[in-house]
Fold this sequence. Notes:
- The protein is of the alpha/beta class.
- Helices cover 32% and strands 27% of the residues.
- The protein folds into 3 domains: 8-242, P-loop containing nucleotide triphosphate hydrolases (Rossmann fold); 249-337 and 423-505, Rossmann fold (3-Layer(aba) Sandwich), CATH 3.40.50; 349-422, no CATH class.
- The strands form 5 sheets. It has a 6-stranded mixed beta sheet with strand order 6-9-10-3-11-12, with helices on both faces.
- α14 runs parallel beside α15.
- The chain is globular and about 70 Å long.
Amino acid sequence: MAAGLAAPAFELEGITKRFGAVIANDAVDLRVAAGEIRGLVGENGAGKTTLMGVLYGMHRPDGGTIRVAGRTRRFDSPLDAIRAGLGMVHQHFMLFDSLTVAENVVFGSEPARGGVFDLAAARRRVARLAERYGLEVDPDSRVGRLPVGVRQRVEILKALYRRAEILILDEPTAVLTPGEQSALFEVLRRLAAEGAAVVFISHKLREVLELCHRATVLRGGRVTGTVETARTTADELSRLMVGKKVVAPQVPVHELGATVLGVESLEVRGRHGRSALHGLDLTVRSGEIVGVAGVAGNGQSELAEAVAGLRPPAAGRVLIGGADLTHAPIALRRRAGLAYVPEDRDGTGLAVAASVAENLLMGFEGEPRLAPRGVLDAEAIDARARGVVERYAIQVSHVRDPAATLSGGNRQKLVVGRELLRDARLLVVEQPTRGVDLSSIEVIHRALGDFSAAGGAVLLISSELNELMTLADRIVVMYGGRLVGELERDNASEERLGLLMAGAA
């Protein structure tokens, strides 16, 4: 039966959810048919994950009705939702690294023999399920040793093992190669063909248009429209999401200057003392954006941390502006012109309990205009913070509000804005737009382009291939702690990059 004609797998009517004075969902209606793949899109803070959290029993609604297969339901916990045939694959995987694939999949619903966990039966069941849906996994592998694409298969198997007929996926392609993404889409299409309802939450509009039958757009906690993907465009979805057309920045081609960052024969130890980088060589010149592509866990983070001074190299050199800063403290690297946007904006980039103004002050406490005669000037600090908030369109009521009150996209703009306040010659930036909405992406991309156009050197580490192909002058690919390929912007394609990322050079 066609998705548009099938009976509803679930219905949400008038769902309202408040967190204090904030209305996250405002009388939202959503009906998804059996056999349908429904995209759910919107900016950070639009209410997508909250709405699915209500459906999955993670949040109790303040108003509205949930119906599953025509029956009115109330879920007090995810366990209630699982029993009703729902499954959810979260953006951050809910797996036990120390357990095997089979043990993770059956956890909480273990087969038993004589009152004892039957591991052999678990392995057989998981193997059969994986084979049925084309989810290639080894039931005996320890999850902590698996690449992210395989871990995601384990999460999907967990839901299928519990006979989920409604599957929710929250930003499922954020850390996948193009090949892994294509494999995931085939699995989801097969599930839908067998009658499952799939909700696909994503910021990547091209993926929504490729995969989904229809897409529902949320803005400010309300539905602004539901469209058939075959009859719409990314521009139209963008308008529904933000109220205007979002224009990708045009990064000008300009003359490159002297080498700003030099990485020579760099070797770095990762977790548990294992080698994460193997004799890596890399340069970034003034006015150049060098993109680094690779599946998570192939040494990109260790490279950024070694350049930033957060991880000591085992061998090799790091030079900034020609000065050997391999073993220099972070403060000296800052004085040499380093700015750094880390991957973990909350744990490393910000003090979320501190105010917006206090976060923007960090590293600038000694500036005479902010601390005349050695005493911090609150008015000057607030005034400078208001300038950054305005320049980067950071949505906050007051600069003295805690950073924790900001959405993910606004937190990211806060980190980027602070780092670009520095008199920097080199910007190292990791995953600048992961989990960030369209408006924030536009602001961040423009900021990176402006910094480069002014002569700054940018080392851009990103899992978003479209981002790399839009911004980077050249793209290097890391696999197994080594550079396995380099492509100029004009010669780069997702297919070629995907092969390199998978180790098939």
